[in-house]
Amino acid sequence: MRTYDVVGIGIGPFNLGLAALADPLADVDAVFLDQAPEFRWHPGMMIEGATIQVPFLADLVTMADPTSPYSFLAFLKATGRLYPFYVRESFYPLRAEYDQYCRWVAAQLDTLRWGRRVVAVEHDAARDLYVVTAEVADGEGVAGTPGVNARREQYLARHVVLGVGTTPRLPAPLAELAVGDAGPVIHTADYLPHRDALRASGAVTVVGSGQSAAEVYRDLLEDAGPYRLDWVTRSPRFFPMEYTKLTLEMTSPEYTDHFYGLDPELRDLVGREQRNLYKGISGDLIDDIYDTLYRRTALGREVPTTLLTDTEVVAARAEPADDGGREYVLTLRHAQLGRTTEHRTRAVVAATGYGSGVPALLDPVRDRLLLDEQGRFAVTRDYSVSTDGRLHTLNGEEHTHGVTAPDLGFGPWRNSVVLAKVTGREPYAVERRVAFQQFGLPGAEPAAVPGTAPDGGTTATPSGAVAEVAR
Ligand SMILES: Cc1cc2nc3c(=O)[nH]c(=O)nc-3n(C[C@H](O)[C@H](O)[C@H](O)COP(=O)(O)OP(=O)(O)OC[C@H]3O[C@@H](n4cnc5c(N)ncnc54)[C@H](O)[C@@H]3O)c2cc1C
User: The pTM is what?
Assistant: First the structure.
């Protein structure tokens, strides 16, 4: 059997970026597996006109290699969109464009294998290699779907890179609600396929705050009238994503070093406190929602909508409605008032985020995993999760590395660190210092990242020349 240097599990933007950066490297033999039939980026939230929340430079490759043929600008040039993008003068591509760009890159890489659901990672002690087993779907079936005759393939790997993403999280009261009793009870990840049914339900409640909640509320607000539309969130206010430049410097290697070096309990606390860094709502969208409410209620018109903050869904049940149909009754508790009330609705959209964990496919190598007391990955600074440093995670390290984990813009830096581990050299320069501010106290040296230049100021570039990085 062929032995790969890298087997990537999951082909979301992060492993797709790794595949694109590994592609020109003669000393990296890689293959990437995904259970889906093709690349699709958050199809349930591909709302018309939505943009990504990071600049176009946060593509799959540019921050690691601005000369890469897989950059967003190269995509625009190849698809005849460069001039319109130039004239548009916005840093923020449409979400649909980003999805199309990723599929344009995916179509050029021969290291991607779709319709493969990885079910197990084992360790072959004799050869000191990992054995990755995937179920393969034939035809249209997504791998492993019951009834689809899934056969199995095995891949031998020196390094395994987990890019399985995060999974939608539903709060317990909603998760226990009998779906389909009244209208849909869905997570935003499944919004678009259910949009018509939500509108037809007669009364929709959006639960949660953050960009996805706001986008769904705004999307449904335009036609609200024939149906009620309510928005309930635990957050004390509809807070904007913080987007000021000194705060953005926290999406940096230095801040990740600082956060990583904190005591784990303090990290959890600080992590929760930093929600507004990336779990808020873009300021433009908040204003757009306000202006839409203003416009739609002008001239004495009414829009059947309520927006509630500091309010949590603490219980939910389904029961017969007065009109003979079925409805959901949500028990809402206001944190400051300490009082509860009952809210009736016919459908629920939970914008309650995503979670990551240790996937079951790693059970056969559990003894080799680095885990903390809570059973979470105890990820090393250079993104590995195993005692031998050859199992790596992309975007499974928010609890250890902080805000950079889900950030598209930081993907290429992390991939450069992983490729440095795989190759034992630095195919792409790994900047150690990029921020003007200092995190922690002066004199604190950045955490060492094996395989990358030790001193923070300088780093070897692909051409071998030494480049000044510190500002
Ligand atoms: C709606 C939305 C918008 C976002 N917008 C932004 C943004 O603008 N800017 C930003 O910085 N971040 C954004 N994020 C956050 C983050 O960047 C994205 O979630 C990103 O998609 C994460 O990429 P990923 O590669 O970790 O995983 P995902 O994109 O979740 O992909 C994981 C892949 O793994 C596959 N997979 C899972 N398990 C297996 C298995 N066992 N075998 C084979 N394949 C498997 C899945 O099929 C999937 O294709 C957004 C998130 C959401 C939900």
Answer: 0.93
For residues 326 and 319, the answer to whether their CB atoms sit within 8 Å is: yes
Task: Compute the distance between CA of residue 87 and CA of residue 107 in angstroms, rounded to an integer.
Answer: 27
Distance (Å, whole) CA 333 – CA 71: 48
With bands split at pLDDT 50, 70 and 90, how would you rate the model's confidence at 458?
very low
Q: How far is the CA of 413 from the centre of ligand 1 (A)?
A: 17
How many angstroms separate the alpha carbon of residue 129 from the centre of ligand 1? 27
Neighbours of 6 (CB within 10 A): 26
Determine the Cα–Cα distance for residues 392 and 381; give it in Å rounded to an integer. 11
Mean local confidence (pLDDT), 202-226:
95
Say yes or no to pLDDT of 464 above 70.
no
Burial (CB < 10 A; 0-12, 13-18, 19+), residue 294, is exposed
Taking the CA of residue 39 as reference, the ligand 1 atom at the shortest distance is: 49
pLDDT tens readout for residues 246-293: 999 999 999 999 999 999 999 999 998 887 677 889 999 999 999 999
Q: Where are the beta strands (DSSP E) in 211-357?
A: 228-232, 305-308, 311-320, 326-334, 339-345, 347-350, 354-355
Residue 247: exposed, middle, or buried by beta-carbon count in 10 A (0-12, 13-18, 19+)?
middle
Rounded CA separation 244/356 (Å): 28
Pocket of ligand 1 (CB under 6 A): 9-15, 33-36, 42, 45, 52-54, 117-118, 163-166, 212, 361, 394-395, 406-408
Asked whether the domain spanning 169-240+279-351 has the same topology as the one spanning 3-166+356-423, the reply is: yes
Tell me, which fold does domain 169-240+279-351 have in CATH?
A: FAD/NAD(P)-binding domain (3.50.50)
- Domain boundaries of the chain, sorted by first residue: 3-166+356-423, 169-240+279-351
Level-2 CATH architecture, domain 3-166+356-423: 3-Layer(bba) Sandwich (3.50)
Q: What angle do CA 394, 15, 34 make, to 5 degrees?
A: 110
